[in-house]
Amino acid sequence: MSAATSVDQQAAQQRNPVYRRRLALHRVGIALCVLAMAVGIAFLASILFVLLAKGFGSLSLALFSQTTPAPGSEGGGLLNAIVGSLLMVGVATLVSTPIGILAGIYLAEYGDRSVLGQVTRFVTDIMLSAPSIVIGLFVYAIYVANIKHFSGWAGSLAISLIAVPVIVRTTDNMLKLVPASLREAAFALGAPRWKVAILVRLRAVRAGVVTGVLLAVARIAGETAPLLFTALNNQFFSANMNAPMANLPVVIYQFAMSPYENWRSLAWGGALLITFSVLGLNILSRTLIKQTRQG
């Protein structure tokens, strides 16, 4: 086909009223999409601007070296809340990671051929969409109400229940991306099924699985509602996981609603810490995903 013929066909299409109407609708749709994106980015930018403007002014050495102050007092920091959050998130990660990865391996290997696998996948989907406050109430009812006190263990249990389905779903999806030829080659060499699942399939997508763990940690790092019903809070420094424990989300929630300017300033500083932590985890996870796709 010559260039002149192609130009004539394009000119005929442009004169076609149906083509012009579709082109106009296409442009309107693109414009609405761009407008919606711009509105969303504008709101996000405004939130980040306010957070940076108010949060940076609260950053100091005392924020990381002193405990939360008493009502109406000056100074203080968030040391007890930072340590409490690190302990509870760390314990929840240690609990949820092996459970989530092993469950994801089971779903990838047997999920389509067993009733238990189908039920597990269904329950995982429900837990992914379950409100975090419901999970907090569940842990309160089965654990806190029976031991008669709040504790860091209860908080870790609550947020681990939020992290497990994220890791399960990510591991399941990552393992399904492994080429069938790789599995068949391992089976042809006489490798048992469990070795193929762990040493071949899981190793091939380990970066993607680690990404799922990081996304789960980012998800639970800022959860407030479950910790209100399980770990509660503690004004003093404590590393005792069997007692009420301070944590950043709950401290931010309580300090932001207080009438004391010092507490509100600390709340902004804590919010900035959580935001940058979650941002760093998301950047790291996206970097690992990019490396996995390139590999």
Overview of the molecule:
It is a single chain. The chain has 295 residues and is mostly helical. It folds into two domains: 3-58; 61-294, MetI-like (MetI-like fold). It is 78% helix and 0% strand. It contains 13 helices and no strands. It has helices at residues 3-15, 17-55, 61-65, 79-110, 115-129, 132-147, 152-176, 180-188, 193-204, 206-221, 225-230, 248-256, 261-294. The longest helix has 39 residues, at 17-55. The two termini are 41 Å apart.
**Shape label:** globular
Helix/strand-derived class?
mainly alpha
Main β-sheet description: none
Alpha plus pi helix count: 13
CATH architecture of the largest domain: Orthogonal Bundle
**Extended strand count:** 0
Number of domains: 2
- Could you please say which CATH topology of the largest domain applies here? MetI-like fold
In terms of DSSP E residues, the strand content is under 5%
Low-confidence stretches: none
Q: Round the mean pLDDT to the nearest integer and report it.
A: 88
**What is Rg?**
26 Å
What is the CATH first-level class name of the largest domain? Answer: Mainly Alpha
N- to C-terminal distance: 41 Å
Query: At the fourth CATH level, what is the homologous superfamily of the largest domain?
Result: MetI-like
> How do the SSEs run, as a string of H and E?
HHHHHHHHHHHHH
What fraction, in percent, of the residue positions are helical? Answer: over 70%
Secondary-structure blueprint:
Elements: H1 3-15, H2 17-55, H3 61-65, H4 79-110, H5 115-129, H6 132-147, H7 152-176, H8 180-188, H9 193-204, H10 206-221, H11 225-230, H12 248-256, H13 261-294
Helix pairs in contact: 2-13, 4-5, 4-7, 4-10, 5-7, 6-7, 7-10, 8-9, 10-13, 12-13
